[in-house]
UniProtKB/TrEMBL annotation:
Organism: Petromyzon marinus (Sea lamprey)
Pfam families for the chain: LRR_8 (PF13855)
Protein name as it appears in the record: Variable lymphocyte receptor B cassette
Gene3D superfamilies on file: Ribonuclease Inhibitor
SUPFAM superfamilies: L domain-like
UniProt keyword annotation of Repeat present: yes
Length: 78
């Protein structure tokens, strides 16, 4: 995995997605609206490895009503 960025609508067609693991990428930010249609998402992993998230903008997770786990450790937080 060598993702360096995600576009806002990249997961829009995956409306039944319950788990998403983006480990070992080089993400530096999460765009506003990237998870808007993932209302069933329960687990999101953004660790470990080379992800370099420094912050999570307001509005990235507003529709995640089923959210139970998020892994963000080992990022370069501000």
């Amino acid at each position: 995995d060598e993702l360096t960025a995600l576009s806002a609508g990249v997961f829009d067609s995956l409306t039944q997605l319950t788990e998403l693991y983006l480990h070992y990428n080089q993400l530096t930010t999460l765009p506003y609206g990237v998870f808007d249609r993932q209302v069933h998402l329960q687990e999101l992993g953004l660790h470990p490895g080379r992800n370099q998230l420094k912050s999570v903008p307001d509005g990235v997770f507003p529709h995640l009503l089923s959210f139970t786990h998020v892994w963000l450790n080992t990022n370069s937080w501000d």
